[in-house]
Write a structure and sequence with these properties.
Cobalt-precorrin-4 Transmethylase, domain 1, 32% helix, Methyltransferase, Cobalt-precorrin-4 Transmethylase, Domain 2, 21% strand, 2 domains, 5-stranded mixed sheet, alpha/beta
């Protein structure tokens, strides 16, 4: 296996960006500013992030290649040529690259080709939600998005609840922001009343919040404002 000296840096990008950065350490920022070649999920959010961190290069001086869920494998393989130019940064639209993100294809390929992979420190909404939930933190599973089909979604929720009980494990799921209310209502109508449900909404933003209650307690309260806000849902059922 031939090992190239060029590296693949995995760069977290905050969902919410305050004027005074409170989420990314200086080392992560310095590495991102030093790179000129990036693989990104979308060009405009990537350029916006680079402007936010005061990247020293102009937009037209940067090399950006798009890797999204529609990118075919042969095109991903073509990104290996980018490493001939030097180190490469991988970014998603928001959050940690390669976690519930198509960037994992490039990370896997980098390992196969002997390219050093360096994940950089930054906020992870998954871990922040787990930390703040008060639920089982020793055993947990991130299950990503639920199926779109209504019957399959209900079945998946029931399966996750059962697994939580049998394996003493917190189950973590997410949803597209514009469908948050529908998922929240489905969770309340599907989960058992005594099951714990944590909602972590817009974490790291000024209006971010996290709350854990039993399902029957959620049902007795007004529905929280979740629309168009990134959110995670944590399920834990105990005997």
């Amino acid at each position: 296996m031939n090992r190239t000296r060029s590296k693949l840096y995995l760069i977290p990008t905050p969902v919410y960006r305050q004027k005074d950065n409170q989420t990314l350490p200086e080392y992560t920022l310095s590495v991102a500013r030093s790179l000129s070649v990036f693989v990104v999920e979308k060009v405009q959010p990537a350029l916006s992030f680079l402007q936010w961190i005061d990247h020293p290069m102009k937009d037209f001086e940067l090399t950006l290649r798009v890797l999204n869920k529609k990118t075919p494998d042969h095109e991903v393989a073509g990104f290996l040529k980018l490493f001939e130019q030097g180190d490469v940064g991988l970014m998603s639209d928001a959050g940690a690259p390669a976690v519930a993100d198509p960037g994992s294809k490039l990370v896997k390929l980098a390992h196969e080709r002997g390219i050093e992979v360096i994940p950089l420190t930054g906020p992870s909404s998954i871990l922040l939600a787990l930390m703040g939930s008060g639920l089982e933190g020793q055993r947990f599973s991130f299950d990503g998005y639920l199926p779109l089909d209504d019957k399959k979604r209900v079945q998946r929720i029931q399966d996750l609840e059962k697994r939580s009980l049998t394996e003493t494990m917190t189950q973590i799921i997410m949803e597209t922001p514009h469908r948050n209310h529908m998922l929240f209502e489905l969770l309340l109508s599907t989960l058992e009343p005594e099951t714990h449900l944590c909602v972590a909404c817009n974490l790291t933003a000024p209006d971010g919040w996290i709350r854990t209650s039993r399902v029957y307690e959620w049902q007795q309260q007004p529905q929280p404002d979740l629309q168009q806000k990134p959110a995670l849902y944590l399920i834990f059922k105990s005997s």
